[in-house]
Amino acid sequence: MAQSYSFPLACWVGLQVSGTEVAQPSYSRQPATFEDEGDGTVFANVATVQFPMCSTDWGPIDTVTLYDAPTAGHLIGIGDVASVTVQARMYDRLCIAPCGHWALAR
């Protein structure tokens, strides 16, 4: 059964490398608020989501995920993965611009 969500939706954005969440010293999930795009299954962030500066190489980020908590928690959604993997290197500061499109987890 699909989960029902209320919008605006406050949640936490995470980054993954090959299906595993980044586990580096400077990494942490970032808070974000999302709005429904009107169809009940696709939603968008309303402001830029910015991660802390990488203090080490985080690796090739290939998936962006949404959770209901800053640590552990339940998977809420998965971001559209671009055709190019983002290489997160030391001193990089990754961000997701407003209106990224996300699909609800099933």
Keywords:
106 residues, mainly beta, two-stranded antiparallel sheet, globular
Can I get a quick summary?
The chain has one domain. It contains no helices and eleven strands. It has strands at 9-17, 20-21, 30-36, 42-45, 49-50, 59-61, 63-67, 75-79, 86-88, 95-96, 101-104.
Explained architecture:
The chain is mainly β and 106 residues long. It has one domain (9-104). Helices cover 0% and strands 43% of the residues. It has no helices and 11 strands. It has a 6-stranded antiparallel barrel. The protein has a two-stranded antiparallel ribbon with strand order 5-10. The chain has a two-stranded antiparallel ribbon with strand order 6-9. Strand 3 and strand 4 (42-45) form a beta hairpin.
Count of alpha/pi helices: 0
Strand order of the largest sheet: 1-3-4-11-8-7
Largest sheet: 6 strands, antiparallel, barrel
**N-to-C series of helices and strands:** EEEEEEEEEEE
Q: What general outline do the C-alpha atoms trace?
A: globular
State the separation between the terminal residues, measured CA to CA: 8 Å
Helix % is: under 10%
Give me the Rg, rounded: 13 Å
DSSP, total strands: 11
Mean pLDDT: 85
Alpha-beta content class: mainly beta
The domain count comes to 1
In percent, how much strand structure appears in the residues? 35-45%
Low-pLDDT parts are none
